[in-house]
Amino acid sequence: MARRMPCYCWVSFLGYIVMITTAFVWYKAMRAFLRIIGPYMIYPGINLKKRAKGEWAVVTGATDGIGKGYAFELARKGFNIILISRSQEKLDNVKNELLGIYSNVKVKTFVFDFAKSKDAKEYQSMIEDVNKLEVGILINNVGTKYTHPELLHGMKDDLSDISNIIAVNTMPVTLLTSALLPQMVQRKGGVVVNISSFSGLYPMSHWSVYSSTKQYVRWLSNILRQEYARKGIIVQTICPGLVVTNMTKKKEPSFFIPDAISYARQAVGTIGISDETTGYMTHQLQVEILKFLPWFIRNWFIDSLSRNIRKAYMNKKKKAKEAKEAKKE
């Protein structure tokens, strides 16, 4: 009886699987590497003036943090700046700072409280004034969040905070973009930058409302990018991590936490290169690492981080209360 030759079909099949998996992992790794390095160190930047086709740049939430950083960086590139925020005093301070450094640019200010203006009609006067100018760039930066991570039912006594987060994080980006797009379409050029967040990239436990509004910004931007690409308009989404701002309560810059000016310089350089990015190289590094993690490990990590932040906040609040009561005694 003839001896049967061993069958190597399963070995060959497994070999192909290993090869394909290895190639796929390398492909993902190279794409991640290019997303981390490319926009910041390799790809040449665009001619922003040429693509904007307008002399003015509008920046909301412009008196602090990322918004202020964008205002300074765009002024450095020769754009006139329209600052929109709720405090005239802070607006005047930023205006004077800008003119002190960039005397060749014009700066206009508009006082507008996005948290209190929840009716679209309240935007009308401000929008009409802004539309009198040739706006080439719109930076939708204004936003707000809650003081600490919390489950939704734990915010039952702070319903106004929930309402403010939804209003401030979704209405301005929608209404201002809608109002300024017509002049950009007419000129067949313009730039809209919508500031989302790390929190909009993944479902963030204990940040349900904030994370959801930031995902809204991403979704809106993706749709607008498709709709207006053939009209010469750039729509970019920025998903920053921690930056030294009043909202994040970070006071000192570090490797992963830049100051707002440094952040904005890198972020503006990605306009026209990346449709969606974090805006800063080390932030992108963090995101790419998270992408490589299995979803259940990533969710566990995010949940643990949120719980620890909440615990630290509650302990700090408890100690402050005890210290206050001790003073009374």
Automatic annotation (TrEMBL):
Gene3D superfamilies: NAD(P)-binding Rossmann-like Domain. Pathway: Lipid metabolism; fatty acid biosynthesis. The chain crosses the membrane at residues 7-27. One of its GO terms (biological process) is fatty acid elongation. Belongs to the short-chain dehydrogenases/reductases (SDR) family. 17-beta-HSD 3 subfamily. InterPro entries: NAD(P)-bd_dom_sf, Sc_DH/Rdtase_CS, SDR_fam. One of its GO terms (cellular component) is endoplasmic reticulum. Keywords: Fatty acid biosynthesis, Fatty acid metabolism, Lipid biosynthesis, Lipid metabolism, Membrane, NADP, Oxidoreductase, Steroid biosynthesis, Transmembrane, Transmembrane helix. This is Very-long-chain 3-oxoacyl-CoA reductase. GO terms for molecular function: oxidoreductase activity.
